[in-house]
């Protein structure tokens, strides 16, 4: 016993599939069920096209595009939603829902989140800033003063560059800096 998978209507038939159905029906070599299985659509869709051909009218779906419930947000209200979300990054989906209610649009918070995700604005938890108490700040300042006094004499050990050596190569260091990638940063220096 062969069990056929029940296929509900997922979306409107493309013009190409409608044309294929018409060709298979004209050949009369396959049943509607076999055509449906071959094209991976429901048998009712094949029957609908067959009835349209028999009655002499062309088959066109009642709706264009995907089937399903239409969105509550118009393009204008969707732009307003995105504008508000970009303006106030810390606004929750509940806050944005209340903002949309001012325009007379009643949507749930999950719809707001779905629209924001599709626009490239997924929700993220804000980074927490390290809490610095006055006592911690005082300790850090004291540590900085200690380190400064410890290493103050180390700068006297650093050699100063010999600018006469650089004049031999005639390198012009007065030119402006160009900040490119790290590998291109020092390309104007001579190789020794």
Task: Describe the protein.
This protein has a domain of 44 residues. The chain is built from 8 helices and no strands. α5 crosses α6. The chain is elongated, with a radius of gyration of 36 Å. The chain starts with 14 loop residues before the first helix and ends in a 24-residue tail after the last helix. The N terminus is likely disordered.
- Helix/strand/pairing category: mainly alpha
What is the C-alpha radius of gyration, as a whole number of Å?
36 Å
Number of distinct beta strands: 0
Low-confidence stretches: 1-8, 175-186
Shape: elongated
Terminal-residue CA separation: 84 Å
Strand content: under 5%
Average of the residue pLDDT scores = 77
> In percent, how helical is the residue content?
40-55%
Q: Count of DSSP helices? A: 8
In this structure, how is the largest beta sheet organized? Answer: none
Order of helices and strands: HHHHHHHH
Could you give a short description of this structure?
The chain is mostly helical and 192 residues long.
Which helices and strands appear, and what pairs or packs with what?
Elements: H1 15-27, H2 32-39, H3 43-54, H4 75-87, H5 93-101, H6 109-118, H7 134-150, H8 163-168
Helix pairs in contact: 1-3, 2-3, 5-6
Give structural attributes.
192 residues, mainly alpha, elongated, disordered N terminus
């Amino acid at each position: 016993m062969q069990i056929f998978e029940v296929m509900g209507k997922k979306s409107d038939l493309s013009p190409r599939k409608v044309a294929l159905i018409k060709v298979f029906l004209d050949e009369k070599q396959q049943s509607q069920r076999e055509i449906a299985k071959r094209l991976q659509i429901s048998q009712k869709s094949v029957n609908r096209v067959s009835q349209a051909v028999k009655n002499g009218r062309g088959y066109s779906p009642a709706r264009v595009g995907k089937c399903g419930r239409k969105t509550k947000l118009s393009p204008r209200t969707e732009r307003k939603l995105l504008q508000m979300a970009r303006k106030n990054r810390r606004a929750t989906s509940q806050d944005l829902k209340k903002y949309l209610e001012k325009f007379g649009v009643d949507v749930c918070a999950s719809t707001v989140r779905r629209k924001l995700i599709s626009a490239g604005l997924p929700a993220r938890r804000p980074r927490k800033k390290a809490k610095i108490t006055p006592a911690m700040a005082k300790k850090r300042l004291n540590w900085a003063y200690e380190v400064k006094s410890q290493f103050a004499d180390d700068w006297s050990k650093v050699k100063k560059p010999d600018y006469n050596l650089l004049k031999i190569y005639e390198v012009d260091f007065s030119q402006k800096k160009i900040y490119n990638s790290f590998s291109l940063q020092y390309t104007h220096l001579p190789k020794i």
